[in-house]
Specification:
8-stranded mixed β-sheet, 7 helices, 35% helix
Length: 211
């Protein structure tokens, strides 16, 4: 299997990223490297990470001025030393087979993009924001299922940047994320990938849960 780097962007995620890292530490196939890019946080995230015993191999903590999601993910990719990039947000937790699922996909389908499903935890309150996040995740999953034909590549451009993987060489060919964008940067990347004839897949086994 290819060497893997998990890239985690974080902005004021001190109380969230611990759970993401804990789920990575339990993987059946540990990533070869974890790159955490702290995007101008003011809540002490970087200091907390530096003091933690992460129990993860080759964990890099990079600090930069706040530049937004596209720029921070590109920074993580540029700092990686592996063939396969796995992107995960700081408010996600993943099942123990998450890394392995992404790796197996790229062994079967080299040169493609692979996005995992998003799963929302049970709603324990009537907070409108949580209801909206759950609805949005369910809508995204439904849309990509309608766009999939016989478990083959999608017929429309979709990825979710908080849970997807791509070979570093492919990421560079596509041009990475457009740092001019402050929203829909993942759709833009998927659109350019489709225009350049790179297939995009979705794998339900590689799901991530909103923490």
């Amino acid at each position: 299997m290819k060497k893997t780097t998990v890239i985690i962007p974080t902005y004021n995620g001190k109380n969230k990223i611990i759970h993401a890292l804990a789920s990575l530490a339990k993987q059946t196939l540990l990533p070869d490297e974890v790159v955490i890019v702290v995007d101008g946080s003011t809540d002490g995230t970087a200091d907390m990470l530096k003091k933690m015993a992460l129990y993860l191999p080759n964990c890099k903590i990079i600090e930069q001025e706040n530049r937004g999601r596209a720029a921070v993910r590109n920074r993580g990719a540029s700092e990686s030393s592996s063939e396969l990039l796995l992107f995960l947000d700081d408010d996600m937790t993943v099942p123990e087979h998450w890394v392995e699922s992404h790796c197996k996909h790229h062994d079967r389908h080299p040169g493609t993009l692979m996005s995992g499903h998003l799963v929302s935890p049970p709603i324990l309150s009537k907070n409108d924001f949580h209801h909206y996040r759950t609805w949005l995740g369910e809508k995204w999953n439904k849309d990509i299922e309608l766009s999939t034909t016989n478990l083959g590549p999608l017929n429309t451009p979709y990825i979710t940047a908080n849970n997807f993987s791509i070979e570093k060489t492919t990421f560079i060919k596509i041009g990475g994320f457009d740092e001019r964008l402050r929203d829909l940067e993942d759709y833009d990347l998927a659109l350019r990938a489709t225009q350049m004839a790179f297939d995009i897949y979705v794998d339900k086994d590689a799901y991530a849960v909103n923490a």
